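Budget justification note: compute hours in this period were largely spent on complex prediction jobs such as the one shown. Inputs:
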Amino acid sequence: MANCSRARSLLSLMAIRSGASASSPLRQFCSSAALSKFGNVGFIGLGMMGSRMVNNLIKARYRVAVHDINYDVMKMFADRGVPTRETPFEIAESSDVVITMLPSSSHVFDVYTGKNGLLHGGNFLRPWLLIDSSTIDPQTSRKLSAIVSNCTLKGKKDDQRSPVMLDAPVSGGVLAAECGTLTFMVGGLEEAYLEAKQLLLSMGKNTIYCGGTANGSAAKICNNLAMAVSMLGVSEALALGQSLGITASTLTRVFNSSSARCWSSDTYNPVPGVMDCVPSSRNYEGGFASKLMAKDLSLAAASAKEVDLKCPLTFQAQEIYLELCKEGHEAKDFSSVFRHYYGGSDE
Amino acid sequence: MANCSRARSLLSLMAIRSGASASSPLRQFCSSAALSKFGNVGFIGLGMMGSRMVNNLIKARYRVAVHDINYDVMKMFADRGVPTRETPFEIAESSDVVITMLPSSSHVFDVYTGKNGLLHGGNFLRPWLLIDSSTIDPQTSRKLSAIVSNCTLKGKKDDQRSPVMLDAPVSGGVLAAECGTLTFMVGGLEEAYLEAKQLLLSMGKNTIYCGGTANGSAAKICNNLAMAVSMLGVSEALALGQSLGITASTLTRVFNSSSARCWSSDTYNPVPGVMDCVPSSRNYEGGFASKLMAKDLSLAAASAKEVDLKCPLTFQAQEIYLELCKEGHEAKDFSSVFRHYYGGSDE
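Corresponding output:
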């Protein structure tokens, strides 16, 4: 976890700095009363996504305390006057709601149930609501939700309300996290979702209630598998078209006015030069890393195996992205599959 | 070819009848002077697509003569006062431009080069422009184009102009053919494309010039392979989501507001009940048959092999559609892959 967080920290510094600049003086915002019923928000996981989400919470005048295992990132927030906590448990102790934004299922499980974790191995919780925005497998979301709902709220022995966990992964990537235009896919109790909606909308532009526990996580991995398969289909089609003598720009125009139209062709085209302001036009830098896509496809493939569903394209997509990572392109945007796997030439 | 045409004929009768009703009295239209430089249009292939395209040519007041090997279909047109010809060669002899809309590469090759074919095995042609709107492999388009351009125009010995073939396959399906809203993807000489544009727009709403010879055919098979892969990705994702407990409607809403958005999710959703007026909501009747998708994927796969390009998802998609056909679903719309291959349940 340390290495992972260390790798994220450098990239996070820019976000933290830009956040400080955009909402300065932050100290003043941090001490402002939040508009929501959640007076104190705890946030765990200050990576590329999380640090930007915190910035937007602060802009929306929530009182936020943060935690990350990376000391440098924590210090950056502390220097801006944002309260920091040494452990997830300390976050839980001082918050009405806790949001986690972590790299994988095991990180989330550890932050919830580990030593000095949110639940501190015990049965009592201060925050009645825990929101996990990480992209993790639905099985882990379901397991953690059950553990959380078996806890009792501290100091409210007579209150019948149980703590609640919502799985609320996001779509939109780093830029959307920065601009506060994320979409949250939320699974869990609908009542809790409705109470959390205002809080989520301070970091995003849209929330979609997906039904019961773990349905947010399920929606996210299903979305990403469909996106990956689409990207691969568009990449194969554009590579084949170029080999047959038709330019990617022309072929993209055909797709976008026809039945091959998709986000990977009209918004995030994988061929350099076809669109401005997308990773393919800046050497596949930024965006959504291939290693993250490989991870999401692994979650989808594992889920498909668990429910005994044949998903040949999902498995094939997973293999392709694992191969891409092995070949050293794991940090490149996932649209780089066009160049590095299909060997497409530039226009 | 006879069987194939026979199978199409019954379905064509409705189109012919509706055409007669929509533009009656047709006899008057047929004898009207056409607005374009192409006074006499020959049309070969009166299947589900072709018969509807002819109706729109007639509505636009072109003088059209038609040919099909199916006598019943020919008779229906003759009864409406549309001139019919016994052979492709007779069509060529009476036309300034000939449009073909046939089921496969071999049909097109035969109509062009066979006994009593358009070229009549000779070197002289009356029409200076031949337009093939069939979906065929780029190799055949290229070969036929070369043969055509080596012919000499009849009675124009001093004219330097050579006959020209355009490959101009369409997207949009039967409904678009009926409504005149097809999109033509055109390969060949740009000058010829510009001269043909008005004619094409009488059957469609859009034309896209794709570059040199065979680029229209290439664009079409690339579009359809990307569409097939997208449909399979969306189907796997929706089937997986349902297995994990999330409804297809909710998941579709997630996709359409996120990065999995595509034509197969927002316009042609494969799950019954999610959208009105799509094949999945009428037991996968109508639309684009799985056997046609299997054929197009075979063309794409063959082209990929020829240019030595790895296209694993294309090959996998081809296998899935061939399997679907073997299982007896060849006449169902290609979105039926959701139910028949992935075994998705209704909502």
